[in-house]
């Protein structure tokens, strides 16, 4: 191991992205991201464990039994043969992939309550993903050496704030999502969209916060950042819950929680619509705040079984089998605490106006006075799709019958790959929502009667008129200008003819 120096957040991010070069030329980003993120998490666990062990050594000297007892009370345990140092010592192992698999499996086995499943279905011995033995060993050796660098020392005593590692993890996830387009975007909501949704929800201290399609957990953590710390700690005064169907992404979310010191979060694996896991007794668990960016218009979401749903989530109607947007919306609403729960969900615009069963569901939700706001977002904010989206806000403690429509579609900063919401754009939406009144060409407070007159169509242009009238044309002035131009043109033609005549042409 080398001598370590205190790195900055920017240096850590740059070093981590550089480590991706080991895989970038030979693997699809959807594959190598899992290895990089898993190794980042492993290195963090090992360095944190080593830091605490050295701290106890200074306190208790050679009393190994006492040190072991103290270490056993830490949030996780790490055997000597599961440390990063041990992996470095074995980087020339001819069976390196199999060796790493055993290390990671043992870490999970020794920490079943906290870390079981955290590495997902990762296989360091996969010929399909990492090539045959010789190439695979070299790639894995390079990866180990990439992390054995001064700027990637994650000991708390060296980096100071452990937030740096959590932020680095989020940095990598966003970079992977940006680089891999649509597939990458499946597990990550752009941070500025998460911030907007989090600030709209205003979670209070002690809140239970839930994301039924939590992906890598970034949205959950961003909402949690709006909650104050528990007194005397750096832990947010809230509890986090999430469900994710994909094993690898589920592992990302569990790592993400741990890195942000939210390791008490309950992140479960499974299909939220067909097999909800967060249950209390015979009903869905209830939450103060429910947020999600579900997959847009999911096909084959389980419509054939919805009529027999044991939790009665589809009593307002069964969404079309080829478009599962309202399946997630209905699940979220039924997961919110009665009388006070709030729901914020990102949806494609079709949810606002499509007919058939979706219209019936939309009408039922409005008649129950659950819908509070419809916010139109700019196009090209999300990874892998240029279509504009909207945010729907539902409130089970709503005090009036009106719905606020906000057209924020023109408020953004253009980018080469993605458009961005800046703080001024986010604040503009928040101010409009807080004021809950008409703003010319931006927001409109619609009554129930207005929405009913529009046949419960929520398409934003029906409520917010952003039409810009063209400046009136002075026809007399235009006529005069045309006559002047024609006169000038005649004079120019005459000069040209005179010039050509003088030249004998």
Give the CATH topology of the largest domain.
Rossmann fold
Overall number of structural domains: 3
Number of strands: 11
What would you call the shape? globular
What integer value in Å does the Rg equal? 29 Å
What do the pLDDT scores average to? 90
N-end to C-end Cα span: 88 Å
Q: What's the CATH first level of the largest domain?
A: Alpha Beta
As a percent range, the share of strand residues is: 5-15%
- Count of DSSP helices? 21
Q: Determine the fraction of residues in helical runs and give it as a percent range.
A: 40-55%
CATH superfamily of the largest domain: Vaccinia Virus protein VP39
The biggest sheet, with number of strands, parallel, antiparallel or mixed sense and barrel status, is:
9 strands, mixed
Alpha-beta content class: alpha/beta
User: Largest sheet, order of strands side by side?
Assistant: 3-2-1-6-7-9-8-10-11
CATH architecture of the largest domain: 3-Layer(aba) Sandwich
Low-pLDDT ranges = none
How does this structure look, described?
With 505 residues, the chain is α/β, with parallel strands linked by helices. The protein has three domains: 9-183, Ferritin (Up-down Bundle); 186-462, Rossmann fold; 473-505. The protein is 46% helix and 10% strand. It has 21 helices and eleven strands. It has helices at residues 9-19, 21-24, 29-60, 64-72, 84-89, 96-110, 112-115, 127-130, 133-147, 156-159, 163-185, 191-201, 218-224, 247-259, 303-306, 325-334, 350-353, 357-367, 423-435, 448-453, 475-502, and strands at residues 207-211, 238-244, 266-269, 279-280, 283-284, 289-292, 342-348, 371-376, 389-395, 403-407, 443-446. It has a nine-stranded mixed beta sheet with strand order 3-2-1-6-7-9-8-10-11, sandwiched between helices. A two-stranded antiparallel sheet has the order 4-5. Helix 3 (29-60) runs parallel beside helix 14 (247-259), helix 12 crosses helix 13 (218-224) and helix 12 runs parallel beside helix 19. It is globular. The mean pLDDT is 90.
């Amino acid at each position: 191991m080398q001598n370590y120096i205190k790195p900055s957040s920017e240096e850590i991010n740059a070093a981590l992205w550089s480590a991706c070069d080991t895989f970038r030329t030979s693997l699809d980003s959807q594959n190598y991201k899992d290895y990089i993120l898993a190794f980042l998490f492993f290195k963090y666990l090992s360095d944190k464990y080593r830091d605490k062990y050295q701290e106890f050594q200074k306190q208790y000297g050679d009393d190994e039994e006492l040190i072991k007892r103290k270490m056993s009370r830490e949030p996780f345990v790490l055997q000597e043969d599961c440390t990063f140092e041990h992996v470095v010592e074995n980087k020339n192992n001819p069976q390196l992939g199999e060796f790493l698999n055993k290390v990671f499996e043992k870490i999970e086995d020794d920490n079943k309550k906290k870390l079981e499943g955290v590495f997902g279905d990762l296989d360091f011995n996969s010929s399909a993903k990492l090539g045959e033995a010789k190439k695979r060993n070299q790639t894995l050796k390079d990866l180990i050496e990439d992390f054995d660098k001064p700027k990637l020392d994650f000991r708390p005593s060296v980096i100071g704030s452990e937030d740096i590692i959590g932020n680095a993890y989020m940095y990598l996830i966003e970079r992977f999502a940006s680089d891999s387009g649509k597939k990458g975007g499946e597990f990550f909501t752009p941070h500025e969209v998460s911030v907007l949704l989090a600030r709209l929800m205003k979670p209070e201290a002690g809140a239970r916060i839930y994301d039924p399609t939590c992906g890598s957990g970034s949205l959950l953590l961003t909402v949690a950042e709006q909650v104050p710390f528990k007194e005397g700690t750096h832990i947010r005064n809230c509890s986090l819950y999430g469900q994710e169907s994909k094993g690898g992404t589920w592992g990302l979310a569990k790592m993400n929680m741990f890195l942000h010191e939210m390791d008490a979060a309950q992140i479960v694996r499974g299909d939220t619509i067909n097999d909800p896991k967060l249950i209390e007794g015979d009903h869905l668990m209830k939450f103060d705040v429910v947020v999600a960016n579900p997959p847009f218009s999911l096909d084959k979401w389980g419509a054939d079984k919805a009529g027999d749903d044991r939790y009665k989530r589809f009593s307002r109607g069964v969404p079309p089998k080829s478009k599962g947007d309202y399946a997630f919306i209905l699940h979220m609403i039924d997961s919110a605490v009665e009388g006070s729960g709030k729901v914020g969900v990102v949806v494609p615009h079709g949810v606002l106006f499509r007919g058939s069963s979706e219209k019936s569901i939309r009408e039922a939700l409005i008649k129950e006075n659950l819908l509070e706001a419809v916010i139109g977002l700019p196009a090209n904010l999300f990874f892998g799709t240029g279509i504009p989206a909207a945010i729907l806000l539902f409130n089970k403690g709503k005090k009036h019958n009106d719905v606020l429509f906000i057209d924020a579609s023109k408020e953004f900063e253009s980018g080469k790959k993605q458009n961005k919401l800046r703080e001024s754009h986010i604040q503009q939406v928040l101010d409009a929502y807080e004021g809950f009144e008409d703003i010319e060409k931006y927001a409109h407070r619609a009554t129930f009667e207005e929405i009913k007159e529009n046949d419960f169509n929520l398409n934003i242009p029906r409520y917010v008129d952003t039409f810009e009238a063209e400046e009136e044309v002075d026809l007399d002035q235009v006529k005069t200008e045309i006559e002047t131009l024609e006169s000038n043109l005649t004079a120019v033609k005459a000069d040209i003819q005179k010039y050509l005549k003088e030249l004998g042409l």
